User: Which sequence fits this backbone?
């Protein structure tokens, strides 16, 4: 199957509290978006990338594409009010049968993880990168009291990329829109139709840049990764 990626970058980054969209903040000398695009550019399984940006941020996105030397970027399209709307806009511009969806705000994703999601989706129909939850999770009632404790061994913290047959995901988005269903990730849209999504175990380093402390952590992780790559070559 040919794989294309929708990289969604059209959020506001309100929890980051920066003066600009967090995906354009610098991370080890390049923007967060450029770092993310580099990973997809380097993944052999991906043939095409669509970047979804907030209207008015197209020029900044083009700059990130240049920084990343991302020749696979086929289109930069405007996103919508919610992440779900932005994914939908990206899917419409993608030409491949396979569709990966990824948050621009997860710049530490690796080409190997992207490839693993593609292979798992080819086998199972759809897949999502995730890690086992380490903490004990509580469900609270409306008064801030603990209501119950779900069995931890069944819990996974889901990340992106998530991989689908493009037609299946477009249909799931169409159904969700018609039925007024909102989802914080794309796997949820297939789940609600009773479709299976396979978990691909990723790693805890594929963090989402969400709040200010995430940026220095990502810098540290990137520099450690570079050191490891250098010592492997030496
Ligand atoms: N309308 C939206 C909202 C989010 N995103 C993208 O979806 C990813 C994950 O969303 P999140 O981390 O929540 O980003 P923001 O919405 O930008 O952050 P916040 O919720 O703090 O405003 C990000 O890459 C973001 O740019 C998007 O493309 N379009
Ligand atoms: C898709 C996602 O990154 C999976 O962890 C996450 O759900 C995005 O959520 P957010 O509310 O947009 O931060």
Assistant:
């Amino acid at each position: 199957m040919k794989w294309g990626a929708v990289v969604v970058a059209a959020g506001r980054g309100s929890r980051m509290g920066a003066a600009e969209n967090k995906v354009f903040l610098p991370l080890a000398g390049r923007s967060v978006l450029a770092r993310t695009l580099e990973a997809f550019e380097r993944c052999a399984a991906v043939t095409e990338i669509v970047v979804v940006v907030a209207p008015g941020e197209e020029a900044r996105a083009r700059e990130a594409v240049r920084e990343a030397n991302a020749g696979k970027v086929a289109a930069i399209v405007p996103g919508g009010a919610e992440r779900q709307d932005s994914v939908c806009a990206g899917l419409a511009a993608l030409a491949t049968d396979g569709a990966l969806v990824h948050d621009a705000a997860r710049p530490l994703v690796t080409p190997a993880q992207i490839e693993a999601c593609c292979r798992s989706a080819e086998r199972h129909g759809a897949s999502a990168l995730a890690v086992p939850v380490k903490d004990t999770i509580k469900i609270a009632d409306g008064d801030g009291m603990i209501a119950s404790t779900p069995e931890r061994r069944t819990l996974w913290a889901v990340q992106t990329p998530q991989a689908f047959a493009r037609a299946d995901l477009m249909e799931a988005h169409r159904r969700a829109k018609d039925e007024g269903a909102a989802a914080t990730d794309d796997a949820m849209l297939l789940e609600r139709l009773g479709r299976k999504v396979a978990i691909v175990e990723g790693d805890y380093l594929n963090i989402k840049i969400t709040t200010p402390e995430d940026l220095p952590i990502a810098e540290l992780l990137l520099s450690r990764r570079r050191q490891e790559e250098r010592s492997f070559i030496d």
The mean pLDDT is 97. Residues 113 and 202 are 7 Å apart (CA to CA). The chain has one domain: 3-126+159-233.
